[in-house]
From TrEMBL:
Residues 2-158 form the DUF6933 domain. Residues 176-371 form the Plasmid pRiA4b Orf3-like domain. InterPro entries: DUF6933 (IPR053864), MM3350-like_sf (IPR024047), Plasmid_pRiA4b_Orf3-like (IPR012912). The lineage of its organism: Bacteria, Bacillati, Bacillota, Clostridia, Thermoanaerobacterales. This is Plasmid pRiA4b ORF-3 family protein.
């Protein structure tokens, strides 16, 4: 594997550049050393497809074992893309010895600098507890870039095509879970059945649920994860309370300001950022997703099945029923009122309510449209 470095990076790693031409550009990367959040960061860009891999918070010990760190970063990022482990390991094996050289030409340097600029855009997503920034790598690799003869390309899609040609077979294989998600309402039966890779983050699951129920991400949200113990009935009015009365073991919040409020429930609170489903699922099989603390939409999530050989790297909706309420409708009472008005053309509020409902995202459940929107979440890593 050839790593073509900027002079700045070569000086830090104290490596003398070699003169070497790798015939297969899939095993060639350009590398630059930049600073993100005042921490040393290496941005790798693949010469064949412009896929991006980010190593962050590098210390002296990491530079001393840079060969290992680079291979691990590539390996972990591809595995996080749900690439079959056998294919990833074969790619690493065929990479051979890592050699360090100078940057090739101004064209490649320009592509590398463009990738570094994308990394700057997402520095708020970087995790402090690991060098290997697989999530930011995936996000940066979905940033469309210009290619003179082809217009704009997605580096992630190009990498997937290149790996499929390399392996000679389909490349995706990962562990996933089948979830039944029910919007808790007294008078309506609204639910979706989803298959979700467990290496997805809870932030991604949030966006999948937004797409599945037609929400528009106007409001805050949180997750509760439940064990097998029963909750004290005195907490019946708490947002974590569910009819089955299971006690939550953790509350994942989407806004750090949540930590400013007193927490007298004894429930551990964690910031959602970077936490993957695999940290809790499938060990725990019951969750609650609360969206919009005003209308208080509570979605009960049950893990129905574990799939060991899921052949996609994104979630899908496989079944469902019922139209979800529009945003800001005023809870279930407001939704019932809304449903009374929209079929009655003689109602003086009919036209205004119909237009308002469409503006707020209200539409009939359509599984094809839902899956198109879910796929967009993963293709763009919309956050």
């Amino acid at each position: 594997m050839l790593i073509q470095c900027t002079k700045k990076l070569l000086d830090v790693i104290e490596r003398k550049p070699v003169s070497y031409e790798e015939e297969n550009l899939l095993f060639c990367w350009h590398a630059n050393l930049i600073t993100l959040n005042r921490r040393k960061t290496i941005v790798l860009v693949n010469d064949k497809n412009r896929y991006v891999v980010v190593l962050y918070g590098l210390k002296a010990k990491d530079f001393k074992r840079l060969d290992e760190a680079i291979l691990n970063a590539i390996r972990l990022t591809l595995l996080d893309e749900c690439i079959d482990e056998e294919i990833v390991e074969e790619y690493v094996r065929q990479s051979g010895e890592i050699l360090y050289g100078k940057t090739k030409n101004s064209s490649y340097v320009g592509k590398m600098n463009a990738a570094c600029n994308v990394a700057y855009l997402y520095e708020d997503l970087l995790l402090d507890n690991t060098v290997y920034q697989t999530f930011v790598s995936k996000v940066a690799s979905r940033y469309w870039v210009g290619k003179q003869e082809e217009g704009y390309i997605s580096p992630s899609k190009e990498m997937f095509k290149d790996l499929e040609a390399f392996a000679g077979r389909p490349i995706f294989k990962c562990k996933a879970v089948e979830l039944k998600v029910t919007l808790e309402m007294e008078n309506h039966n609204i639910w979706r059945r989803l298959v979700v890779p467990i290496n997805s983050t809870f932030t991604q699951l949030h966006m999948v649920l937004q797409a599945a129920f037609g929400w528009l991400d106007y409001h805050l949200h949180e997750f509760f994860i439940y064990g097998d113990e029963l909750q004290d009935v005195s907490l019946i009015n708490h947002s974590s309370y569910i009819k089955a009365r299971y006690k939550p073991i953790v509350n994942l919040v989407s806004n750090e300001e949540a930590f400013d409020y007193p927490n007298d429930t004894g429930i551990e609170m964690r910031f959602e950022k970077g936490i993957k489903l695999s940290e809790y699922i499938p060990k725990y099989k019951r969750l609650l997703y609360v969206y919009d603390f005003g209308d208080n939409w509570k979605h009960y999530i049950e893990v129905e099945k574990v799939i060991d050989d899921y052949d996609k790297n994104y979630a899908i909706c496989i079944d469902g029923e019922g139209n979800a309420p529009p945003e800001d409708v005023g809870g279930e009472f407001g939704y019932d009122k809304f449903l009374e008005i929209i079929p009655d053309k003689n109602n003086p509020e009919y036209e205004g309510t119909l237009v308002w409902g469409e503006y707020q995202g209200y539409k009939d459940f359509n599984i094809s449209e839902v899956n198109k929107n879910i796929k967009f979440v993963y293709d763009s890593f919309l956050l």
